[in-house]
């Protein structure tokens, strides 16, 4: 692994994120990953921050709420089959890692593991979280993205490590 500045691959990471990346979290001996396609890399409170969104209905939500941390593994090569499985199946019912043929590696600065083979990894500790306020959301987005009423919680994770697999 080679540590890199969080900004070095930020543009590429956001471009890939829109096609899918792995958000992983762990707590109490349980680990889960889910596919995300929304997020942001930025700078807030004098720190590098990765912002992710998780719906309360997701199994990941329970774990991220308890762990206070997460990793984002950005696949620099094709991992569409694994991303598709992790985006459509629940970790409540299935060991996604085994089903998708994914291997976990320990995080360097957080207890949450990363997904081996992705190429680019962000390790984050949550510094702020906030549930979306439906009343403050543009009605068009509300209708398009939240017809079921399952509004995301935003998690702002301080990026405590960023690195490339060699």
TrEMBL record:
SMART domains: Flavin_Reduct (SM00903). One of its GO terms (molecular function) is FMN binding. Residues 14-165 form the Flavin reductase like domain. Belongs to the flavoredoxin family. This is Flavin reductase like domain-containing protein. The lineage of its organism: Bacteria, Bacillati, Bacillota, Negativicutes, Selenomonadales.
């Amino acid at each position: 692994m080679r540590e890199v500045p969080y900004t070095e691959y930020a543009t590429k990471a956001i471009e890939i994120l829109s096609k899918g990346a792995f958000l992983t979290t762990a707590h109490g001996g349980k680990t889960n990953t889910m596919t995300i396609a929304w997020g942001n890399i930025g700078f807030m409170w004098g720190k590098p921050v990765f912002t992710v969104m998780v719906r309360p209905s997701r199994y990941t939500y329970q774990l991220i709420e308890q762990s206070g941390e997460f990793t984002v593994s950005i696949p620099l090569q094709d991992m569409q089959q694994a991303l598709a499985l992790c985006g459509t199946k629940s970790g409540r019912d299935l060991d996604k890692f085994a089903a998708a043929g994914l291997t976990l590696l320990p995080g360097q600065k957080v207890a949450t593991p990363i997904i081996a083979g992705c190429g680019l990894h962000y390790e984050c500790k949550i510094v702020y979280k906030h549930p979306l306020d439906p009343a403050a959301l543009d009605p068009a987005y509300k209708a398009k993205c939240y017809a079921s009423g399952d509004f995301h919680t935003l998690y702002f994770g301080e990026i405590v490590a960023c690195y490339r697999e060699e």
